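Recall from the previous lesson that a structure prediction takes nothing but the amino acid sequence as input. Here we apply that procedure to HAD-like protein from Aspergillus sclerotiicarbonarius. The sequence below is the only information supplied.
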Amino acid sequence: MARPKTDFPAIRACIFDMDGLLINTEDIITQSTNHLLKKYGRPAFTPSIRAQLMGIPDSTSSDTFHNWAKLPDSIPREQFALELKEQMRLNFPTCSPLRGAENLLKNLSHARSISSGEGIKLALASSTKSHSYDLKMSRPETRQLLDPFPSDCRILGDDPRLCEGRGKPAPDMYLIALQAINSTVGAASGGKVILPEECMVFEDSVVGVEAGRRAGMRVVWVPHPDVAVEYRGRQKDVLAGRTGMVEIGDEWQLGEIDDGWAEGIVDLEHFDYGKYGIDVVDGM
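The prediction returns the following tokens.
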């Protein structure tokens, strides 16, 4: 067992996943998938299979999903994928912010790092592709939710800087987000770049937690209730990035059990600013 690290620097930047963390799109994906499963006479998602697929792009085209779903032979994967894409096109514009998201982003947009007195830098690192992102931003309340993120610090799954096959749980997306943040660091900080250990990653998915750990960043895991139940008793593995859900090698990037780099919370309202050296300033 690792000795927990206690001498962390204060957080200077926060990088957020989006789906299932800030907005309720994971529930919409489940709703859309269940609609088609019912159409083809198959049972609805179970919490267990849902937890295995959450956070993985195009997961309903995977062997894991189709081995479980056992769709009729007359329904090829390509057809199911096209029908699901259309169902989500109809449903994504109805998405809304999740509990605590608006308040947390508002607070962080007025917060400062106690180490430097600088404002906390914010970035988005989401596996969603641009066309889906636009659908999810259809409503004013979801667009306004993301206002604190500078446009050049919103990294999506089809970002040209992200190499093929290097989505989460690889660290690349979070490292690209940090690079974007550092391009905005100005003279106020003496040009001092933000280091990975000065970044806080917020994630709901297991693969996302692993990506944050591989990037050398601190992580707050806010799991969907189904995911929390599925990984009950394995939370420490999740926080270390050691579930082995997707094998990509480079195990030296992973954390150790109880190493102090990550924690799990029930929802975003339970985030402890002071614990991470973040001073919330009343901006109103």
